[in-house]
Every structure is written in C-alpha cells, then in structure tokens.
Amino acid sequence: MVRSTKTDKARQLNAAYAILQRNMPLPKAMQQLSGEFGLSERQSYRYLNEARYLDRPVEVVETTVPITLKIPAGTARLLRAYARSSGLTIGAMVARALAIFLNTQRRHG
C-alpha cells in the first residue's frame, strides 16, 4: 500500500469539503469519495469528518523531495535562527529564496 503525500491528502480533503458543501447524505458522500480516490469507506469518513471543520478548502502544495545542500556554517546558523523566530521551516525559506532567485534569472538571462 502506497502512503498518500501531503498533496494527495489536501486534494482528498478538498474533495470531501466540496461534497459536504452540496449537502450530500453521509453514506452517499462516503461512497463518492471512496470511489473517486480509491479510499476505504472508513478513510473517506475520516476525510469528511475533518472537512466538516474547514472554513474553506486547504491549500494544495506541490510535492516536495529531499535534497542535500552544503552551505557555509555561518549561513546555516543564520538560517536556523531565522527559522526559529519566523516559524517557517528551513525548507520553506530555501524554496522561496530559490524561486525568487530563479525567477529573476529568467527575466535577466
């Protein structure tokens, strides 16, 4: 059995949210979600139950992959300190910084 990624889970939760917005009876909603994503009815029920508490659909983020980077120790210390103070993960900060850098390179290159 393959585990769902965070992206998969967000899509399934959003589908459950959309089904609930249509006021579909729970047994039918479970069957629809189960059929659409190949989930067990028990798992479908869990997504539907969680979706009941949402105000809006959740953000679907791109699937991430691990990589290894070597950076100067001083930069790593600054990065860790900023991560602690901002509440962001190091991965999120590096991804944002690289996206900004790569976008500026496309415009100028």
Task: Describe the model.
By secondary structure, the protein is mainly alpha-helical. The chain has two domains: 6-51; 73-108. The chain contains five helices and no strands. The protein has helices spanning 6-21, 26-37, 41-51, 73-86, 90-108. The longest helix is centred in the last third of the chain and has 19 residues, at 90-108. The radius of gyration is 20 Å and the shape is elongated. The N and C termini lie far apart (45 Å). The mean pLDDT is 91.
Helix content: 55-70%
Q: What average pLDDT do the residues reach? A: 91
User: How many DSSP H or I helices?
Assistant: 5
Number of domains: 2
Strand content: under 5%
How many strand elements?
Answer: 0
Largest sheet: none
Category from helices, strands and their pairing: mainly alpha
From the N-terminal CA to the C-terminal CA, the straight-line distance is 45 Å
* Shape call: elongated
Note the quaternary state here: single chain
Order of helices and strands: HHHHH
Rg, rounded, reads: 20 Å
Question: What topology emerges from the helices and strands here?
Answer:
Layout: H1 6-21, H2 26-37, H3 41-51, H4 73-86, H5 90-108
Helix pairs in contact: 1-2, 1-3, 2-3
Give the structure's gist in a few sentences.
The chain has 109 residues and is mainly α. 66% of the residues lie in helices and 0% in strands.
